[in-house]
Every structure is written in structure tokens, then in C-alpha cells.
Amino acid sequence: MAGFSTWLESTAISKALFGLSWLWPACESLHFLGLCILIGCAGLLDLRLMGFFRGVAIRDVKAFMPWGIAGFCVNLATGALFLIMQPHLYLTSGVWWSKVGFIAMAGLNALFFETRLSGSALALAPDAEMPPALKIVGALSLFSWFAVLYCGRMLPYLGTGN
Amino acid sequence: MAFFRSLQDSAFTDWFLGSDSIWTYPTVLTLHTVGMAMLVGASIVVHLRVLHVGSGFPIERLRTLYNIIWTGFAINLISGVVLFVTEAADRAVDPVFYVKLGSIGLALWSGVVVKRRVIDRVKVPLGAGGTTRLLSLGSLGLWTVAIVAGRLMAYLKK
Hints:
The complex is a heterodimer of chains A (162) and B (158). Chain A is built from seven helices and no strands. Chain A has 162 residues and is mainly α. Chain A has one domain. Chain A is elongated. The two termini of chain A are 18 Å apart. By secondary structure, chain B is mainly alpha-helical. Chain B has one domain (2-153). The radius of gyration of chain B is 18 Å and the shape is elongated. Chain A binds chain B through residues 25, 28-29, 32-33, 35-41, 43-44, 52-53, 55-57, 59-61, 63-64, 67, 146, 149-150, 153-154, 156-158, and chain B through 22, 25-26, 29-30, 33-34, 36-38, 40-45, 48-49, 53-58, 61, 64-65, 143-144, 147-148, 150-152, 155.
């Protein structure tokens, strides 16, 4: 991984992007904005699945998710740019790989919800008691996203990143 | 100004910034980010709803989100004061810092006005629906300004 990191950082594209002094802070700002949109919209669905906002149909909470996914895409793109510009801060950092692990956990959890639970969840009456499986999926999602945030913010202090 | 200088040069600042522990500066900075996610994340949902995203979501249920908004704000007010103390003299003369504070103040104010209009429905001419949407749009813009200003402050450190 260290070899790949050294190679990536030596490429013309990596050097050219990192040479744009405004790009790094611009990506950071977008990364923060994307995280707020993602945690706001996904967190709302998570809280609903955990049993909060009882009486609100799950369909009406899910309607915010295209925005949450857009926030995630912004962060995926800006995150990829950080990686291309300064790979050594991330690829050899255990904290960064933990962050990737928590993103995978959130993603697999969401995939499980979409493929296995979403149909029955949408069919629930708005004021029905939430089944335990939905509460667990919601709590796991909320936990994963805050763990992602924690790893990202602590990267410079726990590992080698920035 | 001398007061801000004494805060920035205090023994507390030396300990807080100089400590090798992750429980000082890194943890307070992370709390500031958690608070931001709660405060701005919940605000974004409120304003998107006012702008007709998820229009099936009963608008009066947005009330609950204001608990998250104020909790996030409290976390960030406290963590923000601690972070300010450690760079008080520099920030007191930093225009970007005032842009950040000003945009947060205005964004919160518009959030409160939106709540009074569409959730509490206190004696407001509701023909002014267009104005409320404008306030929500403005609030989203102001949160963006606050985030960009906050991020830029890290680059203007002395």
C-alpha cells in the first residue's frame, strides 16, 4: 500500500491537483457540507426506524433520502480528491481504513434494509410499533455515520492523516 | 484586546494545545463537528421540508428536530468558546470569524422565524408562504457560508 501511495503521489494528476492551493480548502468545505446533508437526511430515516416520529409514514421520511445520497456522493468525490492529492495521509493510516470500514458497514446495512426490510417497512401503518429488526438497522446506521465522522475528524490526531 | 491576549497566552491554552492527550484539543474539535452535524443537519431537513422536499412529512412534526438543533447548538457554543479561548487574540481581529458568527446568528434567527410561522402558526399572515420559503432558502445559504468560513479560519491561523 505504501508503494501504491508513493506511485499515486508521483503522478502528474496528483501533483497538478495538489498544486491548486484553493482546491484543498474548497473540498474540505464541501466535505463538511455533504456530511451535514447526509447525516441530516439519513439520520431522520434512522431515527424514524428506531421508533421516533411515530405517526409519520416511513415513505414520507424516505423522501429526503435522495438529498442524503447526494450529500454522500459529494463526500465520495471530495474524499477521492483528498486521496489522489495526498495518498500517504490515508492509505497507510489505520484510522482512515477504520473510516472506510464504517462506511462499508453503513452501506451494507442500508443495502440490507433496501433489499430485505424496506417493503414491509413501507407497508407498516404510520403509528405501528417498530419491529426490533428495523430499530436495530436504524441504530446501526446512525452509529456508523457518527463513527465515520469521528474517524475522519480524528484522522490527524490518531493516525498519520490530515 | 489585552484580555483576549491573556486568554490566548494562558496556562490553560498551553496545556490544551500542547498536551499529547487526544482528550483535549482533538476531542473538543470533534465535539464541534458532531454538534455541527446535529445543528446544521437537522436545520437542512427543516428547510428542505419547507421548500417542499418530502411534502408528505407532516410539517408540525418538524418541531422535534428543533430539539436536535438546540442540542447541537449548545454543544457547539460550549466547544466553540473553549476553542476561541485558545486563539482569542487572533480571532478577535479575524474578519472571517465575524462572518462565521454573523451567518450563524442570522441562520438561527431565520430558523426560529420559520418555526413560528409554519410550526407554531402564531399570528402570522400565512399568505406570506413565499416569504417563509425565501427565509428557508436564505438559511440554507447562511449555513453554507458559516461552514465555509469555519473551514477557512483553519487556514488563517497565525
